Amino acid sequence: MPHYLDNAQREDIARLRESLIGRTEWPTWLLLIGVYSAWPALLLLSPRLGVWPTTALLIPLTVLWMSLQHELLHGHPTRWLWLNKALGYAPFAVWYPYTLYRDTHMQHHRDEDLTVPGLDPESRYLSQSSWAQTGPVMRLLRWLDKTPPGRLVFGVPLALASLVSEESTRLLRGDRQAWAMWLTHGFFLLLMCVFIERYSALSSLHYLLLVSVPALAISMVRSYYEHRPAEHSHQRTVINEASWPWRWLFLNLNLHLVHHDLPGLAWYHIPTVYRARREQWLARSGGFLLPGYAELFRRHSFNPIDSPQHPHV
Fold this sequence. Notes:
Order of helices and strands: HHHHHHHHHHHEHHHHEH
Helix content: 55-70%
Low-confidence stretches: none
Number of domains: 1
Number of helices: 16
Distance between the termini: 30 Å
Mean pLDDT: 95
Number of strands: 2
Largest sheet: 2 strands, parallel
């Protein structure tokens, strides 16, 4: 546990982990069963439900799946990495293989590198040198990406363009791990598309463009202002006191500083730990507090929240 926690905090967290819910992790198991049941059920029922009602239900389900994958790579609901990988490998969200997400996300958790371009793989900032080499169209897109509507519209294309650039480089230089990962992911993705085409009213192209892309865009609302450049690493991570629909979709990752400080803490324990010492968490964040995602849209739909350039690199 982090060194700054006092004995009472350590005891509280240990008590949560030793409780029945902490030992069995039944909420995570229940969500896994729910998603693995709901996803095929919705597709099988889609001829009766209709294409668009099915689409509307699949989008939040896919967002929830991405949040569940995040729990799996952090060691829940089991401590066996291979089993968590097997549980989370289904390509419902399409674009990011589980292994790639796991490896880059673990690198992101080196808090001393948070937001630093080239060191933090989830950074949305550009270094001063990269910005100087960026053309006017890409600069405009980067500025638009700093507004919530712009993140919804342009966040996915920017992220996927970066993914294609980085991963194609690995594949072209013959990286065996990358080839194995993408071939495996592609195989399961092909099976998923065959299932969609054969048993549902949706086409696989409809699923790719109108389910997985909107789901990824919604997930990027969470990461829109999740981190900021700051001198102290613990002041780079937000506490967002979002309302319940967002908390459920993101499995309490809106309280992001708590997660970064205690990455092994299960999603259902995060609010309890936060509420017990709210003022201490706010002080540790340096006041990096947001009242919810709606406030971000209200304040910054036409006003970028900060610069795409990292101020210190």
